[in-house]
Amino acid sequence: MVNKEDQNQQDSMTEDKTRNEDVEQDIPENSSNGSEQRTTPFDESEPDVAEETVSEDEEINQAESSDTALAEAKDKYLRLFAEFENFRRRTAKERLDLIKTASEDIVSALLPVVDDFERSLEIFKENEAVAPMYEGIQLVYQKMLKILEQKGLTRMNVAQGSEFDSEYHEAVVQTPAPSEELKGKVVDVIESGYFLGEKVLRYAKVVIGS
Asked: What DSSP letter does each residue of 122-136 carry, written as one string?
């Protein structure tokens, strides 16, 4: 009888000891879980800081790219504007030159007619019998010459004793100079030279003293 009671006490003590061990094992697990829970917020906050840094870098890169693109576009615009201005000025100059020389062919074709008028006037000038004819020819000649001058025609100023200039004169004949002063210079003008604007339309045909 006694042995049975002792056996029961031993069994109850063993159960209590087992419960105490289970409790002691549960306490570290709970404490470790608590520490993990406490550290979790710090671990979760680190990726947010990294993402903010990356987004700031991207914004800076985008701003720099925008500034570069703006500078390139501005430089391209300035270049195109300069090219257009050069083209506009060149076109305007070519248009003015074309207007000035548009009548070159017709004016050049009329120069022999002007020469014929001048020869006729030279012949009829001293003949009183044809004075009315002379006046009529002179009137037509002056009117025609005025129209040609309005188109830009001007006569070269060449006379006896002028220096010979190959840019404007064409030496047709060389003849002994009547004086030392006329050697190498213009002795006579066979055919007058003309400018159309600033361009030589016809060279003056001259006789040079040798």
From this structure: HHHTT-GGGHHHHHH
